[in-house]
Amino acid sequence: MLLTHPFCSWRSVVSGFGLALVLVGLPGSPASAAGQQPAPEGRHLDPQQAERLKSVMTPLLQKMNHPIQLDQVRIGLMDDSHINAANAGGGEFYVTTGLLQKANDEQLAGVLAHEVAHADLGHVSKLQTMGTGMNIASILLDVLGVPGARLLPMAGELLVARPYERDAEYAADRHGAELLQRTGRDGKRIMAATLTWLMQAEGVGAGGFFATHPATDDRIERVQA
């Protein structure tokens, strides 16, 4: 993700080649792994929002290394004033009202390119596999009476998952720029400008060992390299 918020499950209604995007399935949405806060309330995309997302996202989806069929793409809208978007794996994405209200089309393309890149690189499934593996190992060690076994998932999160997530952010920035470039746009410039805008608008420039996302300045520098 560009920023950190909960995942939710979505479905879409597909009309012809385009995407008719409708939000459903909000009850029972999982809370954020970081803060265990409930997800923001969902809203239906109006026709103008759906058309805007379709026009920006479809070219990116078509330029993926591993393209997702358009009838397999699901996009949900969260009623949240923060600028945010996320990829939940399996062709599931969501965006916030804050993103749609505050981003111009180029900034929206930068954000969505980052999320499509996460999907293309399989980051969500890899993190899910890592988390499952650590939990199974913890259970086995606990059964065997190994001291501190229940701390394994927490240690794994700090030592394995979070560094992987930071590397994944760098990779998604880089690949997102490549996807934009494949659509005939200046990918590096758009991605760097989008990250700069996010830092200025949301104040998300700080990194650090315990931060899931690397420092925004570092991300901009790497994208421009």
Name the beta content range: 5-15%
Give the mean pLDDT. 70
Helix content: 40-55%
* Major beta-sheet overview: 4 strands, mixed
Q: Provide the spatial order of strands within the biggest beta sheet.
A: 3-4-6-5
Radius of gyration: 18 Å
Distance separating the two termini: 21 Å
Structural class: alpha+beta
Give a brief description.
The chain is of the alpha+beta class and 225 residues long. The protein is 52% helix and 10% strand. The protein contains 7 helices and 6 strands; from the N terminus they run βββαβββαααααα.
SSE blueprint:
Blueprint: E1 13-15, E2 18-20, E3 42-43, H1 47-62, E4 74-78, E5 85-89, E6 92-96, H2 97-102, H3 105-121, H4 123-143, H5 152-182, H6 187-202, H7 216-224
Parallel strand pairs: 4-6
Antiparallel strand pairs: 1-2, 3-4, 5-6
Helix pairs in contact: 1-3, 3-5, 3-6, 4-5, 5-6, 6-7
Q: How would you portray this structure in words?
A:
With 225 residues, the protein is α+β, with helices and mostly antiparallel strands. It has two domains: 13-104, no CATH class; 123-224, no CATH class. It is 52% helix and 10% strand. The protein has seven helices and six strands; from the N terminus they run E-E-E-H-E-E-E-H-H-H-H-H-H. It has helices at 47-62, 97-102, 105-121, 123-143, 152-182, 187-202, 216-224; strands at 13-15, 18-20, 42-43, 74-78, 85-89, 92-96. The strands form two sheets. Strands 3-4-6-5 form a four-stranded mixed β-sheet. Strands 1-2 form a two-stranded antiparallel sheet. Strand 5 (85-89) and strand 6 (92-96) form a beta hairpin. Helix 4 packs antiparallel against helix 5. It starts with 12 loop residues before the first strand and ends with a helix. The relative contact order is 0.12.
